[in-house]
Design brief:
Elements lengths: L3 H10 L10 H15 E2 L12 E6 L7 H6 L3 E2 L2 E8 L10 E4 L7 H8 L5 E4 L11 E6 L2 E7 H6 L3 E2 L1 H4 L2 E5 L4
Parallel strand pairs: 2-4, 2-5, 5-6, 6-7, 8-10
Antiparallel strand pairs: 1-9, 3-4, 7-8
């Protein structure tokens, strides 16, 4: 089985030499899709087969139309993926993945408290996002997207992160703690 990194990078590299390299947010959109495939949600949080797998962006949207373009026609567990946007925490609604924009930095404690123990994969890119209670943080290191994963927070949200994804990340919070 090819490594997850290869699987993530292959569609981006296979475009040929005349195509410019992917942008930061093109890579992050691909990661969000793959997070859906390498994280397991508890039965009670999984949408029914007719329901969509929802990715919500909270706050200022750094993706523009890239997220829809990346997720268009994609399915997770037989469910179509859909993107929603929320301007404020009150607008979040049910979702499986919540990307919390940097614009929400000051409200992060309130947002995470509001989610409580809900089985929502929180993803962000602000400094110390995972250490502050988010599950996955994107960080840029030497022009590459890296991940920090807080396993303790994932466990509290009843999410199981597969080893293929953990191999790509720096773990900042240990499960069982």
């Amino acid at each position: 089985m090819p490594s997850l990194w290869f699987v993530l990078a292959a569609p981006l590299v296979a475009q040929g030499p005349e195509v410019p390299p992917p942008t930061e947010y093109e890579v992050k959109a691909v990661f969000l899709y793959h997070f859906a495939k390498f994280v397991e949600w508890p039965e009670v949080q999984r949408p029914n087969l007719e329901g969509a797998f929802v990715v919500t962006v909270l706050g200022a949207d750094p993706f523009g139309s890239l997220l829809e373009q990346t997720l268009e026609g994609k399915k997770v567990g037989g469910r179509s993926m859909t993107v929603r946007r929320a301007a404020r925490p009150d607008d979040i609604g049910p979702c499986q993945i919540l990307f919390i924009s940097d614009s929400e930095k000051e409200r992060l404690p309130e947002i995470l408290q509001r989610l409580g123990g809900a089985a929502v994969l929180t993803v962000g890119e602000m400094d110390r996002f995972a250490e502050r209670g988010g599950v996955i943080r994107f960080r840029v290191e030497r022009s590459r997207i890296r991940l920090d994963i807080n396993l303790a927070v994932a466990e509290r949200a009843h999410l199981k992160i597969r080893s293929e994804l953990l191999k790509l990340a720096r773990v900042v919070g240990q499960a069982g703690g």
